[in-house]
Design brief:
The protein has about 325 residues and is of the alpha/beta class. The chain contains eleven helices and 14 strands. The protein is globular.
C-alpha cells in the first residue's frame, strides 16, 4: 500500500538513502531539509513526480503544520547527530533534537504513523556483562543520547509509533558522513594508514545505512504487528570493540597500523553488547555485512579526500 510519507532531514546521511528507496516502492515522499551542508544528495530523484521538497526549518511550527497534516507516515530524521556537533551548538541540538520533535508529536493525530530513529547509545555501559536488550535500563552518556531518551518516551505514548534504536551506522551515502566510527577508522586507514585508540576494548554494535533504510520499509510492510514497540537495529555478528574493528579493516588494508594510547580517556564512554533478536523475529535480517561495508568505504574514499563530509559545519 503506497503512503504519503514526510521525511524530515530527508537530504541527510540516512535520508539520502531512504528517500530513493521509499520512492522505488511506490510511496509519495516529501522531504523537509534546511540543506545546511549545501548538499544536492537527492538530485537524482528530482525527476520522480512522487517526490517533493520543502526547504525550511523543522522548528518552525507554522511551516511544519500543513506538511504534517498531509502525511500518512512521518519519519523524523532531522537532527544534529553526534557529540561534537551537539557540543558546538547546544542550543541548536536541544531545539532540533528534542523540542522540534516533541512539537511534531503534538501536531499529529492518533491515526498517523511515526517511524522514529533513536539510538542504542542510550544503553551507556549496559549491565554487568555489558549486554543489552530493549528491556535493559538506559544510561545515556552524551547530550544527544539523553535527548533521544526523552524523545523516545514521548514517542511511545503515540499509538502509531515504532522506535528504532539504531546501532552505529556505517557505509557510503550521497550525503556522506566521515565522522561515524567505521567510516572514520576506514578513512584513516586509507589516507593516514594509522589510528591511535583510547580504551580500545569498548564495544559497540554496527549497522549499514542501507539496512537502516530497509528497517523502515520492513516496518511499513509489517506495521500492524510491529506498532507500539521499540526495536534494536544492528548486525548481530558485529558487536565489536574498537580494536576488533581495526583488525577487520586491517584484513583489507594490511598497511593499516593501530595502537593503544597509554594515557587518555575516550570522551565517548559507550561500551555495550546489543541483542537484535527482537527485530530479527519479525523477519528482518540485515543484508550488508561489516566486511562488505568496509570494502565499499575503501572504494568510496578514492573519491573523498577532505574533511567536509563530517557532521560539523
Amino acid at each position: 500500500m503506497p503512503y504519503n510519507i514526510l521525511v524530515t532531514g530527508g537530504a541527510g546521511y540516512i535520508g539520502s538513502i531512504l528517500t530513493p528507496d521509499l520512492l522505488a516502492k511506490g510511496h509519495k515522499v516529501t522531504i523537509v531539509d534546511n540543506f545546511m551542508y549545501q548538499q544536492n544528495s537527492l538530485a537524482h530523484v528530482c525527476s520522480d513526480q512522487k517526490f517533493s521538497v520543502a526547504r525550511g526549518d523543522v522548528r518552525d511550527e507554522i511551516f511544519m503544520k500543513p506538511l504534517l497534516a498531509q502525511a500518512d507516515v512521518i519519519i523524523p530524521l532531522a537532527a544534529l547527530v553526534g557529540a561534537p556537533i551537539c557540543a558546538a551548538d547546544p542550543v541548536g541540538a536541544a531545539t532540533i533534537n528534542k523540542d522540534a520533535v516533541l512539537m511534531i508529536f503534538k501536531a499529529l493525530s492518533p491515526k498517523q504513523v511515526i517511524l522514529m530513529p533513536t539510538t542504542n547509545s542510550a544503553y551507556g555501559t549496559g549491565d554487568e556483562n555489558n549486554f543489552c536488550t530493549e528491556e535493559s535500563p538506559l544510561h545515556p552518556v552524551s547530550r544527544y543520547a539523553i535527548d533521544k531518551v526523552m524523545v523516545e518516551k514521548a514517542l511511545m505514548e503515540h499509538p502509531g509509533a515504532i522506535s528504532f534504536r539504531l546501532a552505529t551506522v556505517f557505509g557510503m551515502s550521497p550525503r556522506m558522513r566521515v565522522d561515524l566510527l567505521v567510516n572514520d577508522f576506514t578513512y584513516r586507514a586509507v589516507n593516514d594508514r594509522f589510528v591511535v585508540l583510547f580504551e580500545s576494548h569498548f564495544k559497540r554494535n554496527y549497522i549499514h545505512v542501507r539496512d537502516v533504510s530497509r528497517a523502515f520499509s520492513h516496518a511499513l510492510e509489517n506495521y500492524d504487528s510491529m506498532k507500539g514497540q521499540i526495536y534494536n537495529v544492528g548486525l548481530s555478528d558485529a558487536n565489536l570493540s574498537k580494536w576488533e574493528l581495526c583488525e577487520r579493516i586491517q584484513k583489507q588494508l594490511p598497511n593499516f597500523t593501530f595502537i593503544e594510547a597509554k594515557v587518555g580517556k575516550d570522551p565517548d564512554q559507550r561500551n555495550y553488547i546489543v541483542s537484535n533478536e527482537k527485530i530479527e523475529k519479525t523477519g528482518f535480517k540485515p543484508r550488508v555485512s561489516l566486511d562488505q561495508g568496509i570494502a565499499e568505504l575503501i572504494k568510496g574514499y578514492t573519491m573523498i579526500r577532505n574533511a567536509r563530509y563530517g557532521n560539523i559545519v
